[in-house]
Amino acid sequence: xxxxxxxxxxxxxxxxxxxLLANVLVLMCFLYSADIRKQVPGLFILNLTFCNLLMAxxxxxxxLAGIIYKSQPGGDExxxxxxxxxxxxxTNSMLSMAALSIDRWIAVVFxxxxxxxxRYRDAALILSYTWLHSASFPIVAASLSWxxxxxxxxxxxxxxxxxxxxxxxxxxxxxxxxLSFLLSLVVLCFTYLKVLKVAxxxxxxxxxxxxxxxxxxxxxxxxxxxxxxxxxxxxxxxATKKISTFIGTFILCFAPYVIxxxxxxSSVVHINSHWGIISKCLAYSKAVSDxxxxxxxxxxxxxxxKDIINKILKxxxxxxxxxxxxxxxxxxxxxxE
Length: 337
Known about the structure:
Elements lengths: L2 H30 L1 H5 L2 H29 L6 H34 L4 H4 L2 H24 L3 E4 L4 E4 L7 H51 L5 H42 L9 H24 L2 H32 L7
Antiparallel strand pairs: 1-2
Helix pairs in contact: 1-3, 1-9, 1-10, 3-4, 3-6, 3-9, 4-6, 4-7, 7-8, 8-9
Protein name: G-protein coupled receptor 26
Membrane topology: Multi-pass membrane protein
Subcellular location: Cell membrane
C-alpha cells in the first residue's frame, strides 16, 4: 500500500468510529429524554441517525476493505446489497435534512399554526415519502444490474459494467442526482433563506427597541451600553452562522462526490482514483457532522447527554465504593497481640 492509501484507510477508520459514537449518542439522548421524543423534528433526526448508523456499519467497512485489498470485498451478492443500501441511505439522509428544513421553516414563518401544520401524523407521512423516494432508485438500479464495485471510489455503489447500457445509465445517474442532491439543496436553500429573512426582521425590531431604551436611559453605565450593543451584533450573526452551517456542510460533503459521479462519464476528463476515494470520504463525513450540526450541540441534547454521562459516572463510582466496602468487610483489621 502507498502512503496515500494508508492515509485514506486511516481517514475511513476515523470517520467510521466517530460516526458510530456520535450517532449512538444521539440515539441514547432520544431514548433517555421524553421531551426530545415529544418533539416532531425528533422523528426526522431519528431517521437521519439510523441512516448514518447503517452507513457506518455497511458501506464504510467495505470501502475500507476496497482500499486495502484494491478489489471487491466479498461476493457479488454482498456488494449488490451494500450498493443498494448505500444508494438508499444517501438519498434518505438528504431528504431527511430537507424535511428538517421544512419543519424549521413552518415553525419560524408560521409559528401560530405550526402545531396544526406539523403533527406526528404529518411527519410520518413525510418520512413515508422519503422512504418511497429513496427506495425507488436502488430498486430500478438492482433490476437493471447497475449495482457493483466501483474501483474509482473503492465502494459498492451505482455501477454499470455493460457498454451497451451507457446512455441509459448516464440518464439514470443524472436523474438520480437531480432528484436527490439537487432537490434537497433547493429545498434547503429556499426554506433556510426564508427563515433567515424572518430572523433578520425580528432582529431589527429588537435592535430598534434596544436603541430606544439606551437613548432613554441617559445615566446607564458605558460598560452596560457596550454589552447591549455587543449582544445586538451577536444576535445578528447567530442565525446566519447556523443557516450557513446547515447549507454549507451539505454542499461541502455531497457536492464533490456528486460532481465527480457526473464528470466521470466525460471522455475528456481523467479522474484520479485518490480523488474518487476522497470525494467518497467527504460524502461519508456527513454521517459524522450530522449528529453535531442537528443534535448534540443543541442545548436540549447537550443537557441530555451530559445527564447520561453523569449518571454513568455516578453509578460506576457507587459500584466501586460498594466493592471497596465489601473487600474491607471481608478483610477486618488484625489486632496487635
